[in-house]
Specification:
The complex is a heterodimer of chains A (about 350) and B (about 140).
Chain A: H1 2-16, E1 32-34, E2 37-50, E3 56-68, E4 75-89, E5 101-112, E6 117-125, E7 156-164, E8 173-179, E9 196-208, E10 212-223, E11 229-241, E12 244-256, E13 266-277, E14 282-292, E15 300-312, E16 315-326, E17 334-342
Chain B: H1 2-12, E1 24-28, H2 39-46, E2 60-64, H3 69-79, H4 83-95, E3 102-104, H5 107-116, E4 120-125, E5 134-139
Parallel strand pairs in B: 2-3, 2-4
Antiparallel strand pairs in B: 1-4, 1-5
Classes of the chains: A mainly beta (about 350), B alpha/beta (about 140).
Chain lengths: ~350, ~140
């Protein structure tokens, strides 16, 4: 609870630094700007009906993010969310199993060393692949998140990052990131596969237009409470061809160090996703993913067919059917639906 | 006799010069030192790739609302991407911590904002008098 107070204090402090003359008019998805501060967030309501479990309605995320732009050196960003609020579960009463968690997603400051070079200090999303850095439900294609985009690496980096954004579009954006110790305010144990320490990595991204890109990631990390270290390489790619958008992410991690519970010395995953814009609002999507987790011998595969309806770019209704085979990890066979709003 | 009748008919039917596009003035707060901007430089600002002026001051870009004809003209002439793709891009950038251009819903609101806020840049119809702001370029 003390941490909540600290976060509230930080937001209040930032709000106190504003100059009200720069207020914008509110539009859904753009947040509210007052002076140098922008306040925004998103909400995601999910219905999960897996074949091997009970149907649930989950308030998956209620996220608030606040950013400030004050000068070259002081540009703070804060995001926190309430996640995993089970609002209703089959054969139970309303809110009976409701145990949401409070999660600090991001807390950092950006200092613009030059027009192209930014130093970020604090807790940030790890730039491995694309999905992890834009994981807000209204921004991604599907309700279920591919395991490839989070299961094999730390989602957060608490430390330093040096970000290079060239004006010349032919050069790659470069992000170098380093976490000297553990994670700041880590997620509760039940919400992460494992924790990492002493991480360092690099992400290169070649952007083409607004959405198309090619990214390469490399990261080294120690696994917390073990003798294990891992080295991960990743690839992400997106290409738009008229109404069709194709994207893929893949990671491969080699694990060193002794751990009797480990079934294999490497872990890898890849998904391919195709989205087709039927019109401005409706899209159909298909996805296939294969993931080989380090702790099980058997691989896990899932295939998805789905539809989404976006009456506004900030609002997404999604419905998808997932068929899963092999080891049951995070995604099971069943029907999933969600309603999300970026506000 | 026939010509005046045709003119009257044309006016009554709202006839206008075919292909005529609304002209815009790109305006900036008087504190901005830049004298002019190219279309590519403008695109870099509105796509959040350039975030500060040469003197180091923050750029505060202002957009019109999605339904406005001025935004359509500006997007076609400068940003060259469909509205949905731009909105999706700005939403992603917003989540990544870069605030999209602020929206003001009239020429007068854009003008007042740009007059008031240091580092602000926006666009207004060329028919509006650009009082107390710096005109950087004319579009299209």
């Amino acid at each position: 609870m003390r941490f909540l107070y600290k976060c509230g204090f930080a937001v209040a402090l930032m709000a106190g630094l504003t100059t009200p003359s720069a207020a914008g008019e509110y539009h859904l998805g753009e947040g509210y700007t007052v002076g140098n501060i922008n306040i925004a967030g998103y909400v995601n309501l999910v219905v999960e009906a897996p074949h091997d479990g009970k149907t649930e309605v989950v308030g998956d995320d209620l996220s608030l993010f606040v950013s400030g732009r004050f000068n070259k050196y002081f540009n703070p960003f804060f995001e926190a969310e309430v996640t995993g609020a089970t609002l209703w579960r089959e054969s139970s009463t309303l809110l009976a199993d409701n145990n949401p968690d409070f999660v600090l997603e991001r807390l950092y400051n950006d200092s613009n060393l030059t027009e192209n070079l930014t130093l970020r200090i604090g807790k940030m999303l790890t730039p491995i692949g694309e999905w992890n850095t834009i994981h807000a439900a209204p921004l991604v294609w599907t309700t279920t998140r591919p395991m490839t985009t989070f299961r094999g690496f730390p989602e957060y980096t608490s430390g330093l990052a040096l970000n290079y954004s060239p004006q010349n579009g032919k050069l790659p954006e470069i992000q170098l990131f380093w976490q000297p110790d553990g994670e700041l305010q880590p997620k509760p144990d039940n919400r992460v596969t494992r924790e990492y320490l002493h991480t360092a990595g690099i992400h290169l991204n070649w952007a083409n237009g607004l959405t198309d890109k090619l990214g390469i990631s490399l990261q080294h990390a120690d696994v917390n409470n073990s003798d294990e270290t891992q080295t991960l390489v990743g690839l992400n790619f997106r290409k738009t061809l008229g109404r069709l958008q194709f994207e893929t992410e893949a990671t491969y991690a080699h694990i060193d160090g002794r751990n009797p519970a480990r079934a294999r010395d490497d872990e890898w995953g890849a998904y391919v996703l195709g989205g087709y814009a039927i019109n401005d609002k409706w899209s159909a999507m298909a996805r296939y993913e294969s993931f080989a987790a380090r702790e099980v011998n058997q691989g896990s595969r899932n295939a998805l067919l789905g539809l989404s309806w976006r009456p506004d770019p900030a609002i997404a209704w999604k419905l998808e059917y997932v068929k899963q085979e092999g080891a049951r990890l995070d995604i099971g066979t069943g029907l999933y639906a969600s309603f999300s709003v970026l506000f | 006799m026939r010509t005046p009748i045709l003119i009257v008919l044309a006016l009554a039917l709202g006839w206008s010069e075919p292909g005529r596009t609304e002209e815009l003035l790109v305006i900036a707060n008087p504190s901005v030192t830049a004298a002019s901007l190219s279309s590519d430089e403008l695109a870099a600002i509105y796509l959040l790739k350039t975030t500060s002026w040469q003197d180091g001051g923050s750029i505060v870009p202002v957009n019109r609302e999605a339904a406005s004809s001025a935004r359509t003209v500006f997007s076609d002439a400068v940003l060259r991407h469909p509205p949905n793709a731009l909105n999706a891009y700005w939403n992603q950038m917003h989540f990544k911590g870069k605030v999209p251009p602020l929206v003001q819903e009239s020429d007068q609101a854009v003008l007042a904002f740009v007059q008031k806020v240091p580092g602000a840049i926006g666009y207004i119809s060329a028919s509006v008098v650009p009082q107390s702001v710096k005109v950087l370029t004319r579009l299209p």
